[in-house]
Write a structure and sequence with these properties.
By secondary structure, this protein is of the alpha+beta class. The protein has one domain. The protein has 3 helices and 6 strands, in the order H-E-E-E-H-E-E-E-H. A hairpin with a 7-residue loop joins strand 4 and strand 5. The longest helix is centred in the first third of the chain and has 22 residues. The chain is globular and about 35 Å long. This is Membrane-bound lysozyme-inhibitor of c-type lysozyme. Keywords: Signal. It comes from Tropicimonas isoalkanivorans.
């Protein structure tokens, strides 16, 4: 009886998830910044991790946009939400992004980023991968 109840609950949960998955294909990418990016062409997230900074998150978002969404370097990454509960992975925090055309104006003030509404190009975000790697090497040298 208990097994059949669990099976019924799983069936209901799976049936509820099918329309969402069918509407948008979910992509996953382990990025150069060693972070997980996950999402659809509408919105994607970079899962947060202790010790990571702005350069890491932007690098990961740029990688995801280029590799999974075939974005050009001139396309823009727009921060949809700053650190919030993930929409794709339970019990994790993430930063949400969307891809926009190159006509969207870039906001260059990233001192307190990433914050909702901030914009940068995919090319600039991917260029930060070198900064992110250099920062990690410097941190490793301290040990």
């Amino acid at each position: 009886m208990r097994k059949s109840a669990i099976g019924a609950i799983l069936c209901v949960l799976m049936m509820g998830a099918v329309p969402v998955a069918a509407a948008q294909q979910i992509h996953r990418l382990s990025t150069q910044a060693d972070l997980l990016a996950i999402g659809t062409s509408e919105v994607f997230e970079v899962l947060t991790r202790a010790g990571m900074g702005k350069a890491d998150y932007l690098c990961a978002a740029g990688d995801f946009a280029k590799v999974r969404l075939n974005a050009s370097n001139n396309d823009r990454l727009v921060v949809v939400y700053s650190r919030s509960p993930s929409q794709f992975v339970a019990n994790r925090s993430a930063i949400g992004f969307r891809l926009a055309g190159s006509d969207v104006k870039t906001r260059s003030n990233w001192l307190l980023g990433p914050r909702e509404g901030q914009v940068t190009s995919v090319g600039h975000a991917r260029g930060l991968c070198n900064v992110a790697r250099a920062n990690r090497r410097l941190d490793d040298d301290d040990d």
